[in-house]
Amino acid sequence: MWPGPSDQLMPILSMIPSAYLDHVIVLATKKFIGKSLDDPKVARNRCIERLNCWLVDLGLFYPSIYQSSSIGATVLYPFLALKFTIAELGTHLRSLHPADAATIVLHNWIKPSILEVPDPELSESDITDSDVPSVTSNTTPDTVRDLPLQPPPTVHSRHGSKTEDPFHTYGLRYTVSRSPDRSRTHRATLEERQEIFDTIASTLHDRCKPDQNDFYPSRGGAWFHLFTLLSENKIDYAGWLSDLFQVLKHHKSPVWTYYLFAKLTRANVRIPYPVAVDIMRYFIDIEKTQWALDVFNRSQSHQWLSSVPELLFALTDSRAVRSQAVFDLLKRPDYANSLPTELRSVANNPLSHERIQLVHHVAYAMAKSPLLTSRMAFRKVCDCLNYLQDRGAPLSSLMSRALVYAGVTRPLREGIWLSTEKFQWILMFVRRLEGDEVADSLDEAAFTLRSENLELDKARMKPLDEMQQEADHIAWEYRKRFGHGSHQSENITSPYKTVTPKRTRVQRRLEFAATVSQKESK
Predict the structure, then answer these.
(1) Which of 184, 191, 477, 479 is within CB 3.0–4.6 Å of 487 for a Cys-Cys bond?
(2) 502 by DSSP, 3-state: which?
């Protein structure tokens, strides 16, 4: 167990004279990091976990070491910035006040990328201890030389590969441009870059300093002010913003992530496209569907549904969504939606195979949604059917399964009369898409069940159950591609696993009465 503040660390630190405490802490941290990273037996995640525990314990014992004016922080944070990202030190940054954390990140992670372009030939092994100023000399924040650090982190979505299989581009290469305006530091001299950084640092300090009553300003947070200033000065902040959202997702409440995003959007701060996709998937995973939809519909941006197709399933699984809301998302321009004329299998079909497949699965999800009545579900499945037919798109057997489940299976199980006209209309699609054999077995089963006053027989429901199980298997495999929890929904059964029907209230009462009578007889 890593020693905590109440175990072995406090007595050791208490024995060190205060005049040498900063120096000892910096050297101990450097030795610990160097030994842990060089040890092949210690995984990097384990090293990061130990380092965060060490930094938190130091803050409890010696809080002033993390103040920006302290010598320890002046030397310690540049060294940490050389080895670790903001996301990796999220546990430590969470323990600091947001104003202090934002200032530390600005001066130690972002500043080097503003002031200098790192030498690509300079490797990490070329940076020796001589590059780090000695804390025993008269070191001040103004005399500390900026260490050459890595360039800003690359922006990527941790879910970036989830949609590569279901949404490819038929061999067409699309150039996705999401680059911001050219930075003010582009081809700028060192003096000009220093002036830009000083302006950002001083403005951030003024906006985040407490008032006379020692209260911090409530309008906006320190992180909001930091990225607003970077945006106003046209500094590339995409990588830093991505790291910050990773910290918030793992170490703060989801409310922090949502409100920081909302504040940045209202201030016209551009949210990088991969960061927005990652935030949406995060909200979908924690069942905050409305927040994910807000990110998708954010102003001054264009989001592609092909990047987050699971948003449609999250909507259908979490609410009685209107068909118009679904089609508003489907009708948005999308690079993966429409096909060039020479690639269309049907001359007047502008939809790609991926979009057609998505609409089929959305229709089946609506058919099985417990939040909709059978009548509502059938109407929404018909809306999806009309959406595809109006565009000349081909239909698959999954659409007929959706029609059968919403228009036949659910009404029979709910004791609702199934009209002959409606059934014959559904049977027409089944015969066309699945053949005469399947249509005849369905016709026979439905006729038998209707003629016996809707008394469901398990054996006679077998054709309907088999159709449902096969469709469940197709839907389960499709959602599994996205790599998140939607394919584990109660509405989607794992391959060929029969869903255990829920007991009705009357059945539970009868079982309870039988149990009580058995106990009394004993």
Answers:
(1) 479
(2) coil
- How far apart (Å, rounded) are the C-alpha atoms in residues 233 and 184? 7
Q: Which of 179, 420, 361, 162 is nearest to 277 (CA)?
A: 162
Percent of the chain beyond pLDDT 90? 17
Please give the span between the terminal C-alpha atoms of the chain, in angstroms, as a whole number: 54
User: Would you say residue 446 has pLDDT above 60?
Assistant: yes
Q: Is the pLDDT of residue 404 over 90?
A: yes
Long-range pairs, 399-402, Cβ under 8 A, ≥24: 399/360, 399/363, 399/364, 399/429, 399/433, 400/426, 400/429, 400/430, 400/432, 400/433, 400/434, 401/364, 401/367, 401/467, 401/468, 401/470, 401/471, 402/360, 402/363, 402/364, 402/366, 402/367, 402/471
Which is nearest to 224 in space by CA: 196, 266, 182? 266
Closest CA to 104 of 217, 261, 240: 240
Contact (Cβ atoms closer than 8 angstroms) between residue 146 and residue 118: no
Contact 407, 429 (CB under 8 A): no
Q: Which helix (H) or strand (E) holds 410?
A: helix 410-413
Alpha-carbon distance 258 to 43, whole Å? 32
CA angle 305, 310, 316 (to 5 degrees): 105
Q: Is the pLDDT of residue 69 over 50?
A: yes
CA–CA gap between residue 236 and residue 114 (Å, rounded): 9
The C-alpha atoms of residue 466 and residue 146 are separated, in whole angstroms, by 68
Residue 306: CA atoms inside 13 Å, Cβ hemisphere, count? Answer: 20
Count of residues making up the chain: 522
332 is written with which tokens?
Answer: 């948005």
Separation of alpha carbons 260 and 266, rounded Å: 10
Listed residue (347, 358, 350) closest to 312, CA to CA: 358
The helix/strand/coil state of 192 is: helix
Cα 69 from Cα 63, distance rounded (Å): 12
Domain boundaries, the chain: 67-303, 315-510
Split at pLDDT 50, 70, 90, the class of 500 is very low
SS3 content of the chain, % helix, strand, coil (to 5): 60, 0, 40
Answer whether 496's CB lies under 8 Å from 467's CB.
no
